Amino acid sequence: MDKLVSLCKRKGFIYQSSGIYGGVNGCWDFGPLGVELKRNIKDDWWYNFVRTREDMVGLDASIIMHPQVWVASGHVEAFHDMLVDCKECKKRFRQDHVEGDRCPECGGELTEPKAFNSMLRTRLGVSDDTAVETYLRPETCQAIFVDFKEVCSSTRVKLPFGIAQVGKSFRNEVNPRNFIFRSREFEQMEIEFFCRQEEEEDWFAQWQEDIWSWFLAIGISESKLRWYEHPKESLAHYSKRTVDVEYEFPFGWGELQGLANRGSYDLTQHSKHSGKDLSYFDQEKNEHIVPTVIEPSAGVDRTALAVLCDAYDEEEVKGETRVVMRFHPRIAPIKAAVLPLVKKDGLAELGEEFERKLRKKFPTYYDHAGAIGRRYRRMDEVGTPFCICLDYETKENGTVTVRERDSMEQSRMHMDEVAAFVQQRTSFERD
Ligand code: ATP
After folding, report:
1. N or C: which end of the chain has fewer CB within 10 A?
2. What is the pLDDT of residues 84-113, one digit of tens each?
3. Which atom number of ligand 1 is nearest to the Cα of residue 242?
4. Domain boundary, last residue among 308, 324, 354
5. In this structure, which residue's CA is closest to atom 14 in ligand 1?
6. Total structural domains within the chain
7. Same domain for 40 and 143?
């Protein structure tokens, strides 16, 4: 983990937030490569689960919502962590993260647990007496329930169908830890899939299959994934059944995505609290029903962390250690690097011009500084799947070498073929 954290900082994937001021616990910044990686994860998810599906539509709702939303959803009442304090070293822990009844740091005696609401409060409005207290959303899905009627009446969706949203969520975590795994500000990719109650088990099983396949499609090793079924007694207040997809991080197994059957809990609650009818009208059957909801809910940051952990590899090549990030080409932040063999004899100019053309099609990188072997290694370290080298033959016949990151094998092709070659191997599109 230490090696990965240091690579992320050194190469511009992830920095501590407000580092020059000593940092903010639980907040992180994605640097120039991190932002590309994260965007690719979100775009691929959207492509796979929204754009290419006929039964799905998207939403981008505001982070700050009416305070009543959080009363209706049950978060004001029940979104609590139970905390314990160490009487000796005064450190604070989430009770469910402590094994046994002693302080995990110093072995001291712990206090009785007390409840702590994890929502981040904020005040909306300019004057002290009229400002309204509300929260930064702790999950993105509530807006989907609140806008359910609007989506139904402004589109032609018919049951079963889903509404998807990607966006920021905030939780005042007691112990943010394990790099970006547990943060206070993070992003979620959530789907509320509405169906008839009699179909809930089939849809639950179908979603298990679909979310599992997506993790494989972005290159995560299947041997590092497993299911965890929540026992009935520890289910969240809204859930009839929850299973998690877990990934084996260097610090142990951790949740990447939850899949919950929320029943009709949320639509019923919001109907009650808002006084608005949130039922769905089935024209064919001529009846109003409150649909059941199956919710796949994934964390963008945790997926990014799993992708980073899974990609990290070290191998011996000619007596030297090669560090290589084996990102799936779809997710890799830079798709191709253009590297002239040498700077002189017009090769640098030719390379720059070629890179400028490719840049319009996918993220590229240009580098002519230092020995070619060193430049290949620099690209391996950030997971660039293809390195294109221009040499003296390029000047003669317009061909270049294309080096593949994992095998390090090189093939020759004409410059005119390179864009299509790289695009075909790195695009989201699949059959
Ligand atoms: P945990 O038990 O780890 O606190 P949770 O069960 O409360 O998580 P959910 O409410 O199911 O998490 O949230 C759905 C997804 O959002 C999680 O699977 C995870 O990927 C992501 N997520 C939740 N909390 C955090 C966090 N503090 N930091 C980063 N991602 C998070």
Report:
1. C
2. 999 999 888 888 888 888 999 899 999 988
3. 11
4. 308
5. 297
6. 2
7. yes
* Separation of CA 299 and ligand 1 centre (Å): 7
Closest C-alpha to ligand 1, atom 8: 255
Q: Domain ends where: 257, 292, 308? A: 308
Structural domain includes residue 93: no
**For residue 417, is it within any domain?**
yes
Residue 115 is predicted with a pLDDT of: 86
Same domain, 283 and 354: no
Per-residue pLDDT tens digits for 346-358: 999 999 999 999 9
* Residue 342 Rama label (left phi>0; alpha psi -120 to 50; beta): beta
Residues of the chain with pLDDT under 50: none
Ligand 1 residue neighbourhood (C-beta within 6 Å): 139, 171, 173, 182-183, 186, 188, 255-258, 297-299, 301-302
The per-residue b/e assignment along 119-144, b for 16 or more CB within 10 angstroms, e otherwise, is beeeeeeeeeeeeeebbbbbbbbbbb
Domain region containing 6: 2-67+137-308
170 and 63 co-located in one domain: yes
Q: Which atom of ligand 1 is nearest to the CA of 260?
A: 11
| Cα gap 220→195, rounded to integer Å | 30
